[in-house]
Specification:
The chain is of the alpha+beta class. It has a single domain, classed as 2-Layer Sandwich (Macrophage Migration Inhibitory Factor), CATH 3.30.429. The chain is built from one helix and four strands, in the order E-H-E-E-E. The protein has one helix at about 15-30, and strands spanning about 5-10, 40-45, 50-55, 55. A two-stranded parallel ribbon has the order 1-2. Strands 3-4 form a two-stranded antiparallel ribbon. Strand 1 (about 5-10), helix 1 and strand 2 (about 40-45) form a beta-alpha-beta unit.
């Protein structure tokens, strides 16, 4: 059972997350050759102040 965690900035709409979860599930089930019902997607939303790239807040 693949469990896929997606980290992203907070503020995305529920519809955007639904569409992304559908796309990830479709691709993961095809690539990993598992049934879609076995794929779990977890969204972790964080505020912008918690993200850094090259030591600089983004």
């Amino acid at each position: 059972m693949p469990i896929i965690t997606v980290s992203l900035f907070s503020g995305r709409s529920q519809r955007e997350k639904d569409r992304l979860a559908e796309a990830i599930t479709q691709n993961a089930s095809q690539i990993l050759k598992v049934d879609k019902k076995e794929v779990i997607i977890v969204f972790r939303e964080e505020p912008h102040g918690n993200w850094y790239s090259e030591g600089v807040r983004i």
